[in-house]
């Protein structure tokens, strides 16, 4: 007895497996049909003893359930309808030949099959049939009565396509197979699938056959006022036959066309279409029916491919997060961690730009610390770089030669350097055979040591031209080669980043692409003031995200400022928290699209930023630890030096005492000799010289002893400022003039009011200032220094100025010079305590000390001392 055959129609694989397990245990061969079309095809080509049909399977064109259609075509054929209780049944089940099955356990399946056989085929005519064994005695359903309209070739095409679509999960492959089947079924010249781009009201070509490459390159159709747009928006097919050439899109006409919607759960997800551009063959309703069935297959296959693609994408994202965490925590150097974090943010989220800002709570600003950019702008959205008549960019374009620009230039381009945090800009003209096309802008935050050689410049020009040619392809351009070329340019020129800009008129350039990365730890780039950006302050204080785009009219001042500064169209700013409080923020930018980031991208960005916060916190703690260790080592070295100086002071005092005793004897004896010598004699002159030299030596010893003695703070007394200055000048004048330096002094003739100070301390102030001026003039041409005193009665102070025409003090250290142990002198030549001690002395008397300095002009210290009234 041949094995019984049973058709099982269901689109649910789990349902099929449960039924197959029960039936095959009874030696029943199961023929699965996964769709309405599969069921009709199997019935048309095979003989079956019974069928089990899922009530949810239906004709995609009419929505009529498959079990109802089979009932009309196979009366008397035993059928079991699987209808779960959780699903509403909108079609009446026939009374004859059908049994309802609600559950898929083994007992229910067996019971439904026995009931169908024993009740629907019992009677006098057959003598009664019961049990599964009776299947062999039931008249089988004969093929050849279904699909009488479709040809065998058409059915075979559908069968082949349905099997092939179950084998592939790549979306492009699925679309190409569907569009090939569409052309084969309709014998059309051209076939296409149009899908929405998700951002604009346009459908774009995702798969094609028979359409020329040049046409397909920019094939986009708006959903407004177009035939394909009507099909997509309304979900209804469009069939146009021999009614003259039809416009598909601008300057693209066809003789006949057929568009059908690709529906997924009754929602259009695309358009499947065929055209006859040259031939005058027309399409009919039969072709429309074929394409509608094909579109139903395509919808399921597209959705499966998308789900599969999303699974692969999420797996890649997870791996990217793991890799990013490893990379960001690879080093504890803050500079390296910042750069790596920006790199990973760009890579993981596949964005064009990533920036890290730090919140400076003291001055209420956001300081840019690091950035990685790989930007490419769409046509019509390029940022513009204006240049004036004084611009060196204009000079480079006119001369067709590279030109360097730095912050010291008197050029219109310096503001651009300052806003980007760059020190130097190299402008390389992009030239064609007869004209200048634009410029390559190469930025340096650290100026290069050597200029590029002609060979390197030649290679850079070729890479730039290759990039321009790739950019000229429009929508078909490949970002990979452009970014690779700019990476190579940065490496060849040892630059931080570079930009390709094309001429857009006579006074501006339009940026096309920008690639590079840098870190700013010395705050050389201007900060963003949060007083003018309350939206960003709210983000930092509440740790909430900011997800917006350029066209959003509700953007706050901070969002607009960052979009303008970064030259992006989309912006996602996430707070960077450390220990639960806002530390800064990470900004993700996109220059290629005009929408907000999706929720999936937001979750992914949060994960990256969380890892970045941990990595940056670890690097910051390590950096602080290193700085503390270096400061401790420096302090220990300074203490050793201070101890050495203290010992030298004590030694100087001991030596001064030893010298003072012989000097006293010499002075006393010489004065006695002078008394017994006759004036105007050689002996008198010689003894007088001895007395004068002895007195001078004794004064030097006295001042030396006064300088090294310890004075209690309580020893304040009235002090004559002029006297302290004259005593100090007497001590240092020979030392200064011996170096061929001119010493100027301007002291008032009249008596000045006294001040209250510790005797001897002001001498230390003048001594330190004069010796510092002397040291600054060493090796300088025409060295001059001076000291001048002026009484200002209106202010009640005596102002003392000590000046020199030396190299000056750099502005960045003008506030550091009064800190203890700060010195610019070589090791072993300075302690860094002189100016610190001078400020302490001036503060003790209630005065003030300040400094004014200009590079290569000189330095002037101002000391104000309040007088006694």
The helicity comes to 40-55%
Q: Return the domain count.
A: 4
Strand content: 15-25%
Class from helix and strand fractions: alpha+beta
**How would you name the oligomeric state of the polypeptide chains in this document?**
single chain
- Shape call: elongated
Q: How many DSSP helices?
A: 21
Low-confidence stretches: 120-149
Number of extended strands: 32
How would a textbook summarize the main sheet? 12 strands, antiparallel
Could you report the average pLDDT, rounded to the nearest whole number?
Answer: 80
Measured on Cα atoms, how large is the radius of gyration?
A: 46 Å
Terminus-to-terminus distance: 134 Å
Describe the structure.
This protein has 869 residues and is of the alpha+beta class. The protein has four domains: 4-137, Rossmann fold (3-Layer(aba) Sandwich), CATH 3.40.50; 152-311, Beta-Lactamase (2-Layer Sandwich), CATH 3.30.450.40; 334-598, no CATH class; 711-866, 2-Layer Sandwich (Heat Shock Protein 90). The protein is 42% helix and 23% strand. It has 21 helices and 32 strands. The strands form six sheets. Strands 14, 15, 16, 17, 18, 19, 20, 21, 22, 23, 24 and 25 form a twelve-stranded antiparallel β-sheet that branches. It has a six-stranded antiparallel β-sheet with strand order 8-7-6-13-12-9, with helices on both faces. Strands 2-1-3-4-5 form a five-stranded parallel β-sheet, with helices on both faces. Strand 3 (50-54), helix 3 and strand 4 form a beta-alpha-beta unit. Helix 5 packs parallel to helix 9 and helix 9 (285-328) packs parallel to helix 17 (599-675). The longest helix has 77 residues, at 599-675. The relative contact order is 0.05. Mean pLDDT is 80; it is low at 120-149.
């Amino acid at each position: 007895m041949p094995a019984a055959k049973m058709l099982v129609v269901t689109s649910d694989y789990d349902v099929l497996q449960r039924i197959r397990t029960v039936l095959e245990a009874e030696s029943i061969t199961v023929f699965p049909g996964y769709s309405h079309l599969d069921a009709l095809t199997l019935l048309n080509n095979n003989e079956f003893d019974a069928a089990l049909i899922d009530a949810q399977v239906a004709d995609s064109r009419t929505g009529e359930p498959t079990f109802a259609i089979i009932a009309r075509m196979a009366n008397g054929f035993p059928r079991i309808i699987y209808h779960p209780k959780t699903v509403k049944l909108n079609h009446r089940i026939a009374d004859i030949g059908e049994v309802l099955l609600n559950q898929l356990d083994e007992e229910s399946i067996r019971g439904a099959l026995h009931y169908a056989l024993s009740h629907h085929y019992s009677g006098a005519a057959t003598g009664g049939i019961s049990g599964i064994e009776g299947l062999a005695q039931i008249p089988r359903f004969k093929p050849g009565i279904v699909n009488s309209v479709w040809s065998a070739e058409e059915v075979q095409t559908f069968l082949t396509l349905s099997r092939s679509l179950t084998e592939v999960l790549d979306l492009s492959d699925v679309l190409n197979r569907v569009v090939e089947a569409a052309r084969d079924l309709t014998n059309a010249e051209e076939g296409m699938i149009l899908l929405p781009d998700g951002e604009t009201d346009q459908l774009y070509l995702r798969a094609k056959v028979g359409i020329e490459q040049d046409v397909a390159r920019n094939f986009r159709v708006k959903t407004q006022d177009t035939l394909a747009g009507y099909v997509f928006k309304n979900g209804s097919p469009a069939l146009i036959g021999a009614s003259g050439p039809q416009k598909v899109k601008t300057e693209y006409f066809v003789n006949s066309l057929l568009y059908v919607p690709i529906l997924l759960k009754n929602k259009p997800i695309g358009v499947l279409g065929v055209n006859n551009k040259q031939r005058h063959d027309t399409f009919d309703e039969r072709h429309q029916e074929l394409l509608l069935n094909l579109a139903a297959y395509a919808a399921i296959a597209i959705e499966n491919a998308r789900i599969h693609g999303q699974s692969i994408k999420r797996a890649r994202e997870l791996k990217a997060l793991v890799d990013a965490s490893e990379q960001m925590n690879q080093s504890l150097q803050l500079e390296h961690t910042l750069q790596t974090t920006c790199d990973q943010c760009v890579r993981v989220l596949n964005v064009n730009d990533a920036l890290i800002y730090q919140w400076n709570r003291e001055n209420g600003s956001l300081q840019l610390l690091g950035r990685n950019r790989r930007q490419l702008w769409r046509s019509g959205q390029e940022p513009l770089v204006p240049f004036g008549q004084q611009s060196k960019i204009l000079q480079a374009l006119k001369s067709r030669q590279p030109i360097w620009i730095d912050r010291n230039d008197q050029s219109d381009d310096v503001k651009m350097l300052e806003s980007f945090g760059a020190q130097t800009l190299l402008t390389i003209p992009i030239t064609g055979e007869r004209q200048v096309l634009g410029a390559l802008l190469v930025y340096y935050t650290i100026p290069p040591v050597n200029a590029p050689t002609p060979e390197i410049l030649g290679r850079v020009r070729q890479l730039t031209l290759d990039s321009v040619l790739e950019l000229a392809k429009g929508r078909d351009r490949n970002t990979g080669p452009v970014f690779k070329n700019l990476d190579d340019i940065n490496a060849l020129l040892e630059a931080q980043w570079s930009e390709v800009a094309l001429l857009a008129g006579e006074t501006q350039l339009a940026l096309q692409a920008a690639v590079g990365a840098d870190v700013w730890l010395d705050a050389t780039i201007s900060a963003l003031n949060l007083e003018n950006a309350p939206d960003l302050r709210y983000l930092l204080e509440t740790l909430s995200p900011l997800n917006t785009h350029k066209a959003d009219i509700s953007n706050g001042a901070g969002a607009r400022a960052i979009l303008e500064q970064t030259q992006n169209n989309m912006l996602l700013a996430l707070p960077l928290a450390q220990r639960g409080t806002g530390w800064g923020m990470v900004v993700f930018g996109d220059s290629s699209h005009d929408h907000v980031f999706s929720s999936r991208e937001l979750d992914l960005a949060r994960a990256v930023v969380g890892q970045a916060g941990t990595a940056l916190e670890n690097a910051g703690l390590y950096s602080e630890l290193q700085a503390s260790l270096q400061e401790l080592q420096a302090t220990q070295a300074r203490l050793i030096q201070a101890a050495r100086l203290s010992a030298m002071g004590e030694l100087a005092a001991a030596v001064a005492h030893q010298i003072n005793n012989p000097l006293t004897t010499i002075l006393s004896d010489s004065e006695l000799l002078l008394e017994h010598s006759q004036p105007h004699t050689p002996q008198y002159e010689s003894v007088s010289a001895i007395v004068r030299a002895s007195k001078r030596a004794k004064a030097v010893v006295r001042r030396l002893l006064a300088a090294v003695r310890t004075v209690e703070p309580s020893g304040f007394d009235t002090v004559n400022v002029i006297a302290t200055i004259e005593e100090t000048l007497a001590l240092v004048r020979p030392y200064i003039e011996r170096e061929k330096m001119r010493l100027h002094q301007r002291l008032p003739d009249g008596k000045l009011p006294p001040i209250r100070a510790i005797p001897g301390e002001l001498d230390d102030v003048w001594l330190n200032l004069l010796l510092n001026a002397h040291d600054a003039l060493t090796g300088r041409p025409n060295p001059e220094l001076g000291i001048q005193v002026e009484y200002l009665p209106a202010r009640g102070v005596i102002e003392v100025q000590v000046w020199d025409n030396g190299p000056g003090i750099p502005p960045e250290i003008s506030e550091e010079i009064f800190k203890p142990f700060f010195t610019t002198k070589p090791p072993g030549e300075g302690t860094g305590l002189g100016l610190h001690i001078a400020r302490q002395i001036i503060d003790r008397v209630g005065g003030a000390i300040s400094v004014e300095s200009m590079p290569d002009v000189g330095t002037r210290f101002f000391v104000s001392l309040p007088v006694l009234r």
